[in-house]
Fold these 3 entries.
Entry 1:
Amino acid sequence: MQTLKLIIPGSYYDSQIYSGRLYLWSSDGSISTFDWDGLIESVNIPDHLKLALVCAFQRSEYLYGDHWALIFQDVEIKTSIENKFKELAGMHIEFSQKDLYRFVIREQDNPFPFPHSDSVIYSNNLYTGSQSGVFSSACNKKNKNPISPRSKKLWDGSTLSISASYKTLGISAGSDGLFQYNLDPDFGQSRYNPRPLISQHSNSARWLFASLFSSSYLNEGFLADFVNEYNDEEQRRQRILRGVIPSSDIFGHQIRNGSPTLTWGVHDKICFATQKSVEVVQYSPYSKNEEERFIKLGLVETQSLQGDIVSGDSALFGFIIEGEDGLLVINSLLESAWFPGEPVNWRVFPKSKFYTNQFHIVYDDHLSIHSFNQDYFVDQKTKKVGIRLPRPF
């Protein structure tokens, strides 16, 4: 599997990318904001590869959509685009500190407790979760500081993971379980904010449509099964909790069997990973037939992982499994890639519009940004690996 890769040297702790800007937390806790579009446009490549570069690192949505289906039916055009990505993948692109300095928008003190356990940017706000709780700060291009130096504490509970959608934060709080925090200004400061959803241990929260999935390395996963319906009385749409479903009910067998396993879910797929395979179930919350809400898609074999499975996540381009000594990516063409070494941090951006094909891996001395672009040519309705395109761009 060939991927496009950019190297950004430096000692970093975390990364986020949003609306044409790259945010990097240095290991000393400070935050640097870069003009991402300017940085990519500065890459010196032949003109015939610029479309591939833009699709890979600036506008991941360009080649998605039904309007490209007819074009990709032309074998010559499809082959030409694929060859552009392959040629670009063969190039070594690394930015020097001098290159980066040209595109620094601002370096600033970190307004959040450091180190944090997770971060997310949603609706022009940056949220972080840590042992000190959940914090937010404005993050938009209108302010002098890319990130407002004044942060607001939303919750004081110890937090391992946060994820945002539907004007709501999903919060994994370890042994305290899974919570949701409503960000809707009309919601008010109710005593039910944050609202507990699942009492079992939770170390990762991810969105499946309006639902939230709680993953744990101590117990099986749990789905807080929501449906988004219109409330005539309130005159607006509301998320309604239908129940909490353990992953053993979804997959039809006991999950924790003594061997290293992990269950997670993102958008339309729920995954149960072992050292040898990933079992995949497709989730369709609005199916009228109850039996069609959870459809088994079968097993995907993996390279054998050694030791425990640390974490897992999903993107449009495939599944990511973190083992004790590296990261395994299985893409939507069922190809595997192994990234050896223990990362400081890593993340994908399945809720993004422009960066769904990016995979950020933070190592001790650099940030490695990989771009997977094979998914443009895969049937989104039938693919087994990787989440289905969430919405038309």
Entry 2:
Amino acid sequence: MEAAEAISSPLGTITISNEVVAQIVARTAAESYGVVAMAPRAAIGKLLPERPTRGIAVKGTPEGLRIDLHVVVEYGLNLAEVGTTIRSRVAYEVTRLTGLRVAAVEVHIDDVRRSK
């Protein structure tokens, strides 16, 4: 995966990969109220083995990081509120843990189901 962004100082450069950011997004989303699971981004993803960053795409842009995540939400909850909460928590945690600017967090609710 390509580097998300490099942070430079007089002592050197720190490069944070998109995979690291995706791991942060996955953990934050999984801890968010109402999230049952991450959803694959494409139909072929359902055939592949489960992995923590399934359904997450991170792209570095000049404006900051653009994060897309696909989730499954618990049935019976207000989908708009769950999506808003996920978006704000993910943006906050990525910025707090990496120091990188987040330009956008797109939350795609792909399914609803009862939690197990």
Entry 3:
Amino acid sequence: MAVPKNVYVRALRKAAQTLGSVEALRAHLQVSMNQLAGWLHGEAPPPDVVFLKVVDLLAEEELAVIKRGLRDQSDQSAAE
């Protein structure tokens, strides 16, 4: 099954936002800025290994957000 290229672009942009910049994402992925720019503009999909690194990064961030939310809920319950 083919993956729509906008999925790659959206994931890469979200990862750059999560890390704080496109440069931080480039360093995290250990790729050239030219490669990353092409992927961000949808010119070509990133290699699977790179895309999986992006997915891992986003999943880790989502898990951290969930954990913070659960911790905040627990703290609020304890304060009541």
